[in-house]
Structure formats: C-alpha cells, structure tokens
Amino acid sequence: DAGVIQSPRHEVTEMGQEVTLRCKPISGHDYLFWYRQTMMRGLELLIYFNNNVPIDDSGMPEDRFSAKMPNASFSTLKIQPSEPRDSAVYFCASMAGWGAEAFFGQGTRLTVV
Amino acid sequence: GQQVMQIPQYQHVQEGEDFTTYCNSSTTLSNIQWYKQRPGGHPVFLIQLVKSGEVKKQKRLTFQFGEAKKNSSLHITATQTTDVGTYFCAGRLAGTASKLTFGTGTRLQVTL
Fold first, then answer.
1. Helix/strand/coil (H, E, C) string of chain A?
2. Facing residue for A43 by CB, picked from B31, B50, B88
C-alpha cells in the first residue's frame, strides 16, 4: 500500500478563494482524521470519520470549513472562503480500528495570501 | 483548550546526553501513543501504552505510562543526531471514543 495520500502537497491561494484538500486513506482503514498544524496551536484535530460517517467535528474552527467522506477511499476538506489565518499544514491520517496507530499523509502546506 | 500538555516545549542537548519529555493529561486516558515528527515531515507512530504503570523499551527509548493513566514519559538514552525532531504524545481521553488528541509536542535538537 502506498500509505495515506494527500493532494496537493502545496497550495498557495488568495484570500477569499475556495480551497479543497484531498485525502486517500489506507485501504481497509475504518477511521479518517483531519488535523491542522501550526506553530502557535500545534496539532489540532479538526474532524474525524468512522466508516465514512463524521463522528466529531467539534474541532472545525468555523462554518467556512467543511469535510466530506463520500466513500471509504476518499475525503475532502474544504475552506470557503479562505483567510490568511488558515495558513497551516493540514494532515490527513487513517487508522485500522479503535486503539490502532494512526498513519499520516505527507500533509498539504496551505498558504493564503 | 489543550487538554494534553507536554514539557519541555524545546530541548537542545549535545549528542550522548539523555533526554526526557513528559506528557500530562487533565483527564484519564484510555491509552497513550507516541509519535515522532522529523523537520518537514509528518508524525510517525513509535509505540502505544495501554496498561497503568506500563513500561516499554525500544532500543535507546523508554516509554512509561503513569499509574493513574494521566501522564506518560519518553526517555532517550545517549541521544544521537538522528533523534532530532518533535515528539508528540497522543491520547484517547476517557469518554471520547476514538478521538486521538495530540499533546503540544517537545522539539528536540541534538548537536555534536
């Protein structure tokens, strides 16, 4: 397996534009997590899914953020409209089951100017 | 707010010195995991501890889980430059199902 795959690796966009981050989890993994990493706030959990169903989205900062998992092999995190304070590295991670280890993707470095 | 804190935030050691990072939770943890993130990289799983008072070793790394399951530590003996990175603990807070909450991280710098 190629591991968790995220795209794009880097994204630079202008304030107000829509941004869509993509994630392909490891095949067979039941859980998918979206994290955001910044120097100030560290690794923050935004939302996680179990069997494609959102379980906890309490970490989603505001209504501008939305996440979907239409099937077991694909998830998106969308920011609309984007703001400079959204600049961060966004990680997707997947997990085989409760109590298992999390496998992280390479991350998407988002810069909003 | 952040429920899993780590200290120190940053440590700079000379190669060969020991290093310890401490992880403290405000609530009981079902289990605790440790991850390492190299500069520019992504977090990579190191180990998981489940039982109260559990101690596990991986070569020069020793991991402990506290008796009350609210704290944990990672100790590295005789650090090497390859140990450079940020070490995160990650726990499942009791009552939060599979939600994996990461600690604030400790950045380790090792110089010759």
1. CCCCEEECCEEEECCCCCEEEEEECCCCCCEEEEEEEECCCEEEEEEEEECCEEEECCCCCCCCEEEEEEECCEEEEEECCCCHHHCEEEEEEEECCCCCCEEECCCEEEEEC
2. B88
Residue A96 forms contact with B (CB below 8 Å) = no
Asked if A31 and B90 come within 8 Å (Cβ–Cβ), the reply is no
Q: Which two tokens stand for residue A13?
A: 């966009």
pLDDT category, B1, cuts 50, 70, 90? low
Q: Which of B30, B45, B97 sits opposite A102 (nearest CB)?
A: B45
How many interface pairs between A and B have CB atoms less than 8 angstroms apart? 55
The residue-averaged pLDDT of B87-92 equals 93
Q: What is the pLDDT of residue B2?
A: 54
Mean pLDDT along residues B103-110: 96
Higher pLDDT, A39 or B84: B84
Cβ separation A91–B43 shorter than 8 A: yes
CB contact under 8 A, B43 and A42: no
Can you say whether the dihedral through the CA atoms of A48, A53, A55, A57 is positive or negative?
positive
